[in-house]
């Protein structure tokens, strides 16, 4: 492989508690800690491992988001990616439009592999990789827990509801990552310094002539129904009599 | 206009997820056609034909569909798409894999994990690991939906089966190739549809202890076994038992969490259970915030007592 393209997304940090806006228009992320989507971080790590194993020459990261998403790209560069691109917009871009932008990037960059997170932990859509594969007419392997490159094909083990499935794909291909694919590396300080000097180009969606208008109108965003406060029970037998009384066991 | 539901199955047995998705789609008041694409999957089509709410069964039998791979299945759904206003699949690993591929080629923005049908174009879905519910209205002409099956009861059966129509699939060259699979075999009820789930976390300490503690209790309660991400990552349980934001989402009548701290990613997969029991030695564990019954203590002592009390 010559090139691996890794799309990454900046999201509300997985440890932060999302606050639903009182006017029901969405989640208030102002002043909250933002991070690279955990699945995207796994995708960067896997691309780097393929490169370090000699299976690829270059790892390019791309993000679509606000100016602050440069931080996310710098993190990917500090992990070891070679260069980065930001398609800058303050709009919320839906997976379909993200896939169209990434398709345009892929046509320019001509990667052999696009590897990306199976879902973003903010909108939880789980769509972008599959949509991108469709638009490019490439094969896909979603929810990967192991990736191996051999004899010009990619062997991907996927986490499916009934267990594990292995597919082999010719290149170019799209792979989406699941949690157990790898454990991403920590960035050492010298690498963070070095990442500041790596190339990070910025453009806008209009440069690709792609309409990113929303197809889904957000009618409201509300907190989920709360649960009734529970009780503490002291012993197992007390618990069993409560469960019996409720007809559960 | 009509709805097309893509059935989830293993060529022999229809998954409970399909029957649940059917219930969700019946709320749209359109006829529902169910697509069974498989290899020698007529038994599945016959099961679908007896589900309450199925208007017609479309059976497509071809070796290309033996393992549910996305490319041939997406091409098949696309070839049928013109006749349908709504195209849906249960949000199983298969449905999640194929439906966005179809959506992109129809230029439709899919709505994932529908938990409520508000109107023919408006749906509710969880975002941020279930920490918020978004009400979204689709402006696309066609609606592509995956259905979160834990939010809907399974459709019942009817006495007289509806017709099964066989359709010849479009031919094509498929790039991804099936190489093999390792399927978990278990005598336990299916995790996604079980009435009771007993779930274990990292506190179990080893795969042996996980089996030793969780197994007999699940056996006694005729329960499915689940696990937290931490337990799966540590190798105590296989991946297909993971409950959470990125694993399976369950909503049984009774969910028993043993040694699970309750990270929001885990809560996302089980907090809609009717009754939640938590046993954890850390009294500040977040799992207690969603538990109806909590016991603070050592699960290695309490679980055997629990089994004794159950008799």
Description:
The complex is a heterodimer of chains A (249) and B (311). Chain A is α/β, with parallel strands linked by helices and 249 residues long. Chain A has a 9-stranded mixed sheet with strand order 11-10-9-12-8-1-6-7-13, with helices on both faces. In chain A, strands 2-5 form a two-stranded antiparallel sheet. A two-stranded antiparallel sheet of chain A has the order 3-4. In chain A, strand 9 and strand 10 (153-160) form a beta hairpin. Chain A has one domain: HUPs (Rossmann fold, 3-Layer(aba) Sandwich). Chain A is globular. Chain A contains 6 helices and 15 strands. In chain A, 27% of the residues lie in helices and 32% in strands. Chain B folds into 2 domains: 2-166, 3-Layer(aba) Sandwich (Rossmann fold); 196-310, Rossmann fold. Chain B contains 9 helices and 16 strands. The longest helix of chain B is centred in the C-terminal third of the chain and has 15 residues, at 207-221. The radius of gyration of chain B is 20 Å and the shape is globular.
Indicate the mean pLDDT of chain B.
96
H/I helix tally of chain A: 6
Major sheet strand order of chain B: 5-9-4-1-2-3-10
Low-pLDDT segments of chain A: none
Kindly state the number of beta strands of chain A: 15
Distance between the termini of chain A: 57 Å
Strand order of the largest sheet of chain A: 11-10-9-12-8-1-6-7-13
Strand content of chain A: 25-35%
Specify the CATH homologous superfamily of the largest domain in chain B. Answer: HUPs
What overall geometry of chain B do the principal axes of the alpha carbons give? globular
Q: What is the percent of helical residues of chain B?
A: 25-40%
Radius of gyration of chain B: 20 Å
**CATH overall fold name of the largest domain in chain B:** Rossmann fold
Architecture of the largest domain in chain B in CATH?
A: 3-Layer(aba) Sandwich
Strand content of chain B: 25-35%
Cofactor (chain A): AMP
Family (chain A): Belongs to the ETF beta-subunit/FixA family.
GO molecular function (chain A): electron transfer activity
InterPro entries (chain A): ETF_a/b_N, ETF_b, ETF_beta_N, Rossmann-like_a/b/a_fold
